[in-house]
Write a structure and sequence with these properties.
The chain has 255 residues and is mostly helical. The chain has one domain. The protein contains 11 helices and no strands. The chain has helices at 29-50, 54-59, 67-91, 95-129, 141-159, 164-176, 180-183, 187-191, 195-213, 219-241, 244-254. The longest helix has 35 residues, at 95-129. 30% of the residues are buried.
């Protein structure tokens, strides 16, 4: 998906300071391992969150779920695996492999956006008709926003695939944006609308990495932050307040 300029990997032992580990700078630990470590952290969050509900909602549900939920779950898992793989390939300096696999990721992301929207609609209908739940239609604002944010970030990442500093941060932000589905499996975080702040903390780790390594915040974060905050706030408002205009939209979409 991108052309990555990989800097030479020097020893972490400073020639003049034997035994001293460099944590920042061009060849420091944060510079070399941040995105790889974050890919593993995101995978842990996904497993920790979804293991709380996957058995009753997917593997052994009282009422069988629509097949599309399996497809959606598979695509989501494939993206997390892809993100880890791409981070690993850059870490081991297999840039040509990273670039080739990137087009698979572009195709997967292109499928995930409409798949996420369609799955949200079908599962909302299922919750209303089969599980007799009420008020769930307003929640459509959350997955709809997630897919818009993910699609825009990945679209820009593909467009700037030859600019690694832009590309990798956009893919990172896009992947962090999917973590609300995992954080939302924790009842306390879900009930108190904390799943967005949790994923924003993950993105802030990227900001912290830039401050420590580059001594500045990259413009990707500066431009993305206002849009993320506004989008997240609006989607939560639409879900929790369910204004009349949003009720009309969801009614038209669902029925």
């Amino acid at each position: 998906m991108s052309t990555i300029n990989v800097e030479p990997v020097d020893s972490l032992i400073s020639p003049g300071k034997l035994g001293t580990t460099t944590f920042t700078g061009r060849n420091g630990i944060l510079c070399r391992y941040f995105y790889f470590a974050m890919s593993l952290l995101l995978a842990v969050i996904v497993v920790a969150g979804f293991k709380r509900t996957v058995n009753q909602n997917l593997f052994h549900p009282a009422v069988p779920r629509p097949v599309i939920l399996w497809v959606h779950a598979s695509a989501f898992a494939a993206w997390v695996t892809f993100f880890i793989s791409q981070s690993t390939l850059v870490r081991v300096r297999k840039v040509s492999w990273h670039r080739s696999m990137g087009w698979f990721g572009a195709g997967l992301a292109t499928v995930m956006v409409p798949l996420g929207v369609i799955t949200a609609i079908i599962m909302t209908r299922f919750d209303v008709v089969q599980l007799h739940q009420s008020g769930v239609d307003a929640f459509l604002s959350i997955p709809f926003y997630d897919m818009i944010a993910f699609g825009v970030c990945i679209g820009l990442a593909i467009y700037w695939r030859t600019k690694p500093e832009l590309h990798r941060r956009l893919v990172f932000i896009a992947t962090c944006g999917l973590m609300d589905a995992a954080f939302g499996r924790f009842d306390y975080l879900f009930n108190n609308n904390l799943f967005y702040p949790c994923l924003d903390l993950l993105i802030l780790l990227g900001v912290g990495r830039d401050l420590l390594v580059d001594r500045r915040v990259h413009r990707v974060y500066l431009y993305a932050a206002p849009f993320l905050i506004v989008g997240q706030s609006l989607s939560v408002y639409m879900w929790r307040s369910n204004p009349a205009w949003w009720q009309g939209i969801t009614r038209a979409i669902l029925w």
